[in-house]
Here is the input.
Amino acid sequence: MFDKILIANRGEIACRVIKTARKMGIKTVAIYSDADKQALHVQMADEAVHIGPPPANQSYIVIDKVMDAIRQSGAQAVHPGYGFLSENSKFAEALAAEGVAFVGPPVGAIESMGDKITSKKIAQEANVSTVPGYMGLIEDADEAVKISNEIGYPVMIKASAGGGGKGMRIAWNDEEAREGFQSSKNEAANSFGDDRIFIEKFVTQPRHIEIQVLCDTHGNGIYLGERECSIQRRNQKVVEEAPSPFLDEATRKAMGEQAVALAKAVGYASAGTVEFIVDGDKNFYFLEMNTRLQVEHPVTELITGVDLVEQMIRVAGGEPLSITQDDVKLTGWAIENRLYAEDPYRNFLPSIGRLTRYRPPAEQASGPLLENGKWQGEAPEGPVAVRNDTGVYEGGEISMYYDPMIAKLCTWAPTREAAIAAMRDALDGFEVEGIGHNLPFLSAVMDHPKFVSGDMTTAFIAEEYPDGFEGVELPETELRRIAAATAAMHRVAEIRRTRVSGRMDNHERKVGTDWVVTLQGQSFDVTIEADPSGSTVRFADGETVRVASDWTPGDQLARVSTDDSGLVLKVGKISGGFRIRSRGADLKVHVRTPRQAELARLMPEKLPPDTSKMLLCPMPGLIVKVDVEVGQEVQEGQPLCTVEAMKMENILRAERKGIVSKVNASAGDSLAVDDVIMEFE
Here is the structure.
């Protein structure tokens, strides 16, 4: 076995590999750019090597620089993680030439299956059902439009070397095909150094289900069940689970056997994933094979007990699999939520900055365990597991140069319902401040009836949130629980304020029992009766809620019991009350005396400034191009400019007809959030 492994990656996946290597007694080497000098993976590794400036195309995907780091460190093997060089056959060849083991598949398998065009042709030759499309290289936008018309709209425009949602666009007409081709080509060149594009039919109402395979160099191959990855935004997965709530055992077996057969056909050896789209009748179609570890691999590990990173390392070391297909048992249910540095209230645009607060929920170990390929005891019936794979820490920065993923939060439980419930609690207890993030959206998804029922497709987000995410409207039953909790919390804070030292004599302040709680446009008159073990909050209609908590003023997380039902609240202080975040809702809660509430109703509402005649930069980014000029008339939906952030190109379009009166930015300018790009008459 290897003594030292270099991880040719960064962030959470580098930290993930380091954890397993440490468990196996293998020393690790991290590589880092200028932007990652203080990164968590650098701190965790046994040693670290600097490889260049922040942009990935000047550091993490420069093969010569990574090879120099390998020579400096004396590493015997390299784990590429995912993204960057993980599916780059030239990198694998360079390692082989140096006598360094690649913790991944053989070069031939990478070339055959890592390239989406080639993999489609191989699948077709193997009589695997594939989606109709054009597998040849496409020279320009005109040819892309012609091919799209031949296939029939809608079409999916994809980068051949793509992954992680980069270099992918859906086109519904000629104009979108032309724009999508160029943007996909640019993103592919910037992210992968390979701008080849192909086009295939976009199958509407599909599910995205993938099979995890594991093969060794001795001809053994197994599949470890499937992952449901249908909840996606911009073709990037957001929520994954294993197993799928849609598949039956017969379909799972057919898909698994086909995936293994495909892997063996190209001499595959390592962990890999075969992706399918599945229609409502459980017909499945091969999409592509990812010749690497998937981002969502933890859910498979949680239901099988198999450490995929360990298996990859052992296969790379020449060991045969210690697990047979009969050893693979799918136990319980696992769900993964990807926490992104994206502001859901700004159409999920990237957010960068310093993590002023980062407090993930406590990890809990549970679930099935495998040791040497054999089951150890019975799977637990009651406990849940909580796992958080991350590469950041409180005080660290989210950089504009890399993917916006902060962490992968996973829960496991014996049933899907219990796993969802555990995820809800874990999300409510996850504290992140300093940047925009998608925690509220993830909480909303976990409560959405379609997700809870398991009846969702890859169109879930587009269909359920067509106008973007604007927060969650909580039902009155939940509002009453929060009103009762915050009233009791406010009383505790008021009592604390009466005990401040240095008060004037003969001015003792008394805390009343009657309060008015206002939140989400509703007001509740309540009376609080307190005792040593908690408070009884009585509403005007006679309903009572028993509240108990150990919350103290200043705590930013409150765990409250309301009538013996748990409630987790993120708490911020505002004038006259709290900012409360719970279950995807962001609430301003005011707790006032009856007289204060009466006067508050007379106060005028402060309106936001009018920005309707301005185009504001929605996120920190780089202006790639400006499509209009002063005096030009623009139509609704017309492209105005393109902003690049976190390796994604975002086309900003006109919301209505107008005339450009001023342009404040040009190509190459770096802008902050809400900087004015242009103005209109």
About this structure: Residues 49 and 294 are 25 Å apart (CA to CA). The first strand starts at residue 4 and ends at 7.
